[in-house]
Amino acid sequence: ATVVFTQNLKRHVECPTEAAEGATVRAVLEVVFASNARLRGYVLDDQGTLRHHMMVFVDGEPITD
Fold first, then answer.
1. pLDDT mean across residues, the chain
2. CA angle, residues 23, 28, 32, in degrees to nearest 5
3. How far apart are CA 16 and CA 6, in angstroms?
4. What is the rounded distance in angstroms from the CA atom of residue 21 to the CA atom of residue 8?
5. 55: how many CB neighbours lie within 10 A of its CB?
6. Does residue 17 register a pLDDT over 80?
7. pLDDT-derived band of residue 64, with 50, 70 and 90 as boundaries?
8. What's the rounded Cα separation, in Å, for the pair 40 and 42?
9. Is the entire prediction scored with pTM above 0.85?
10. For 25-51, how does the pLDDT look when each residue is reduced to its tens digit (9 = 90+)?
């Protein structure tokens, strides 16, 4: 997967476009977070859930699960 973050997030934390392998969105994000630990706190809350103001798109379509 190719993971791209918005300019809004890039204003707060370095998060270049990155290729990552994984069978699920969560697995792909974990690969990205492993190489960029600071990014995790901007995307996920303390319980490891996607923050309410974040959206994830797969092939241009928003996902909710």
1. 94
2. 160
3. 10
4. 25
5. 11
6. yes
7. confident
8. 5
9. yes
10. 999 999 999 999 999 999 999 999 999
Q: Rounded CA gap, 63 and 4, in Å?
A: 15
Measured from the Cβ of residue 5, the count of other Cβ atoms closer than 10 Å reads 19
Distance separating alpha carbons of residues 23 and 38, to the nearest angstrom:
23
Instruction: Look at strands 18-19 and 56-58 and give their pairing.
Output: unpaired
Strand partners, 57: 62
Single-letter code of the amino acid located at 17: T
Cα–Cα dist 52/43, whole Å: 9
Exposure string for 15-43, b = 16+ CB within 10 A, e = fewer: beebebeeeebeebbebbbeebeebeeeb
For 61, the token pair is 């379509």
